[in-house]
Amino acid sequence: MTAESAILRMPAGFLWGVATAAHQNEGRNRNNQWAAWEQQPGRIHAGQQSGRATDWWSPGTIAEDFDRAAALGLNSLRLSVEWSRIEPEAGVFDQSALRKYAEIIRLLRDRGLEPMVTLHHFTDPLWLTEMGGWENPRVEELFNRFVGRVVDALGDQVSLWCTINEPIVYAVSGYLDGDFPPGARSLPRAVAVLRRMLLAHGRAYRTIHRLQRGARVGLAHHMRLHRPANPSRPADRWAAATMNQIANTSTLAAITEGRLTPLVGLGQRVTHLIDTSDFIGLNYYTTILTAFAPHRPTSFLAHTFFDPHAEFSDFNPNGEPYGIIDPAGLYLALKTVARYGKPIYITENGVPDAEDRLRGRFIATHLAETWRAIQEGADVRGYYHWTLVDNFEWAAAWALKFGLYALDLETGSRTARPSATVYAQIARTNGVPLALLETVAPGYVVPSA
Ligand code: IFM
């Protein structure tokens, strides 16, 4: 075997990054709906708050973390801008906040880290929430105005944009499951919000392209693939396929073909949504089994559960599993996304694993599966691990640890977990060395291409 064939090599120019988000990292965000939600008793695990988070609004700390990312051999970093800092009151734009983000981007560029900027990652300014948030039809135009200001301010340094992070998670968690603000439990409201976010994505796409030549714009789509509980049972296959359409491919069809599924838009084709993805951002964490359940009409006749025989990552503090480890699920997700014919960035992939017992293997095997999908034609251009330093994990607060670096909440000090070295080796090699794979995932069979 030659040295070259001993590496599952990624294409030249592949972006190796970590993904982060404003509210989960910056700290002291007090003017958005999450800050208000964190004040309400019973909403967040153990009454915790985002507080200082990873303290990225402090120039020293963020620069040191960017040093850490560069020292790992990364060449990119995904972050989001906080709408409530940039537009603290409706129509009032804070130039100092925009300048600060420009400085943050400069810090990235100075370290050879290509920025990928997300324009909306779960948080809304309080003034928008008071107007009804994403249920108010005006949000499309208001988001679009905000997007225009950000692109004006940062467009000379940023060309990779994610309009909205995980619309499906925002809509379902906030309006159906009630775990995110506003804590609603209504399918029609969730559907209305999802629809509005997709439409807002389309407008933002066009605005960014109008303002910036050469921009590359996508949406970060969360994909938890449904696998049939019993693959030999047609009813389970039907249930999994239905759920995949509702939760996964309907968003992809909207932002490529402009097609809204019956649930979101009566099968309507929306002209301004057609071809609004220069790339597709895929956020992949886990898969779920799905069985046909005729007695569950309000759950789309589906019963979903994690494979009890699989390996589980750390559990949510409420005792619910976060997910199982399923690297081949990433391969399947990439094959699904590749059908839309667009370049793909894995905009998030990670695992809650406080003891770091899984993460090194998780990274190496998920990237091996990525390599397999690339060999079969998926145009994957980059991988962003979630995340660099343990950060505020929404309703689970500080209980779930996703960082390559552990954060001491008291002192703010960071300690590299062993898996950081695994990721660094892969990034520096621009691929997964088979010897490394064998070390961190003994017995793992390299998928044949
Ligand atoms: O922390 C979140 C992120 O905000 C959105 N995607 C999933 C991550 C891990 O749960």
Please give a structural write-up.
The protein is α/β, with parallel strands linked by helices. The protein contains 15 helices and 15 strands. The chain has helices at residues 22-25, 33-39, 59-71, 83-86, 95-110, 126-130, 139-154, 167-175, 187-211, 234-257, 262-265, 327-338, 359-375, 418-429, 434-440; strands at residues 7-9, 15-19, 76-80, 114-120, 160-165, 216-222, 225-228, 279-284, 287-292, 302-305, 344-349, 380-385, 405-407, 414-416, 431-433. Helix 13 (359-375) links the parallel strand 11 and strand 12. Helix 8 packs antiparallel against helix 9 (187-211) and helix 12 (327-338) runs parallel beside helix 13. The longest helix is centred in the middle third of the chain and has 25 residues, at 187-211. The site of 5-hydroxymethyl-3,4-dihydroxypiperidine has 8 residues, from loops.
